[in-house]
C-alpha cells in the first residue's frame, strides 16, 4: 500500500553461532533457526517429553521413565486389565529433539503395540 509503513524483520545472531547467517525474527518464533538445537539441547524438557508420551496413548496407561544416563523407557498398559501391552527401554532422549521425532516415536510404539496384540491374539487361538 502506498504511504503505509512496513516493519522489517529484526535481525539477530545467536551468540554461539556468531558469523553464520542472520536469524530473521518474526514475532517470537524464528522459521530459519532453532536456538535449542543450536546449543546442542533438545527442544523439549524431560517432563514435557514424558507428558506428551503419556497422553499420546490414552485410554491406555503409559508410564515413561527417564533414567540418569539420558535414556528412557516406555511401558504401555491395557486400560481395563492392566496387562503390559508393550515395554521398550533404552530409548535415547537425543532421538526426540523435535515434535516430528516425537510423533514418529509415538507412531512406531503404536505399531509395535498393535503387532504385539495381534501376536497375543494368534497365540490364544493356538492354545
Question: Uncertain segments of ≥5 residues (pLDDT<50)?
Answer: 8-18, 21-41
Specify Rg, calculated over alpha carbons.
21 Å
What's the overall geometry?
elongated
- Helix tally? 3
Number of strands: 6
Beta-strand content estimate:
15-25%
Query: Termini separation (Å)?
Result: 76 Å
Roughly what percent helix?
A: 25-40%
Order of helix and strand elements from N to C terminus: EEEHHEEEH
Total domain units: 2
Mean pLDDT comes to: 74
> What is the topology, as strand order, of the major beta sheet?
1-2-3
From the helix content, strand content and strand pairing, which structural class follows?
Answer: alpha+beta
Main beta-sheet strand count, sense and barrel state? 3 strands, antiparallel
Protein name: DUF1652 domain-containing protein
Organism: Pseudomonas amygdali pv. ulmi
Pfam families: DUF1652 (PF07865)
Amino acid at each position: 500500500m502506498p504511504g503505509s509503513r512496513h516493519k522489517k524483520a529484526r535481525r539477530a545472531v545467536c551468540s554461539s553461532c556468531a558469523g553464520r547467517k542472520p536469524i530473521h525474527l518474526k514475532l517470537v518464533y524464528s522459521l530459519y533457526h532453532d536456538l535449542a538445537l543450536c546449543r546442542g539441547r533438545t527442544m523439549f524438557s524431560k517432563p514435557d517429553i514424558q507428558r506428551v508420551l503419556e497422553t499420546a496413548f490414552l485410554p491406555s496407561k503409559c508410564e515413561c521413565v527417564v533414567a540418569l544416563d539420558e535414556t528412557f523407557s516406555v511401558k504401555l498398559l491395557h486400560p481395563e486389565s492392566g496387562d503390559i501391552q508393550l515395554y521398550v527401554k533404552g530409548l535415547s532422549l537425543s532421538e526426540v529433539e523435535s515434535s516430528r521425532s516425537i510423533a514418529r516415536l509415538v507412531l512406531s510404539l503404536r505399531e509395535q503395540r498393535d503387532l504385539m496384540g495381534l501376536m497375543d491374539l494368534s497365540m490364544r487361538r493356538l492354545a
